[in-house]
Amino acid sequence: ADWVGREWPSERYAGLAATLTNDGPLAGGRVVVLGDEKDKDAGHTIRLAMPRNRTSELPGRLSRVQALAVLERAALYLGGDSVWTQLAVAAGAPVVAAYGPSDDTVRGPWGGVVVRGPRSVDEFRKIDPGLNQAILHMNEVPADRMLKAAKKVLAERS
């Protein structure tokens, strides 16, 4: 994400990845972490939650074209309001995306599943009119709803 208000906590991504690939529907699967240079800390957090031999930590290491090639093979993509989510859609990956202050009817992943917290975009604009304050809006998106959506998407594709 290009702003802290759109970033879902990396610890939650790590928990989802571990749950899905340890004994979940993607048991034994690999986790590939994509992103820009600024996403390296988040990538590191996710990698530390996973077995080393099943995680590729690639923030800042791939071009967008290379990322598309990786995403074309993805069984599932978990992300937020970012260019990486849009690349996953373009690559045809099944997408589950966490959205908070962004209007998913405008910026959402076409054909993907959006998981929102309890607030509407209008409610976010009341507390953060310019949508630019250093408020962790995404903390309101529950991990259990992301997990439920991911499992549903995977079940529908099998």
Describe the structure.
There is one protein chain. It is built from seven helices and five strands, in the order H-E-H-E-H-E-H-E-H-E-H-H. It has 158 residues and is of the alpha/beta class. It has one domain: Rossmann fold, CATH 3.40.50. The strands form two sheets. The chain has a three-stranded parallel sheet, sandwiched between helices. A two-stranded parallel ribbon has the order 1-2. Strand 1, helix 2 (40-48) and strand 2 form a beta-alpha-beta unit. The mean pLDDT is 95.
Briefly summarize what is shown.
The chain has 158 residues and is an alpha/beta fold.
Task: Looking at this protein, list some descriptive labels.
7 helices; three-stranded parallel beta sheet; single chain; two-stranded parallel ribbon; Rossmann fold; 158 residues; 11% strand; globular; alpha/beta
Helix-strand layout with pairing:
Layout lengths: L9 H13 L8 E3 L6 H9 L6 E3 L6 H8 L5 E3 L3 H9 L3 E5 L4 H4 L5 E4 L4 H7 L15 H15 L1
Parallel strand pairs: 1-2, 3-4, 4-5
Helix pairs in contact: 1-2, 1-7, 3-4
Output mean pLDDT. Answer: 95
Class computed from helices, strands and strand pairing:
alpha/beta
Biggest sheet details: 3 strands, parallel
What is the fold named in CATH at topology level?
A: Rossmann fold
Known CATH architecture = 3-Layer(aba) Sandwich
Number of separate structural domains: 1
Model regions low in confidence, pLDDT < 50 over at least 5 residues:
none
Strand residue percentage = 5-15%
Indicate the overall shape.
globular
Q: For the terminal residues, how far apart are their CA atoms?
A: 30 Å
The total count of helices amounts to 7
Output the strand order for the largest sheet: 3-4-5
Helix content: 40-55%
For this structure, what is the CATH homologous superfamily? Glycogen Phosphorylase B
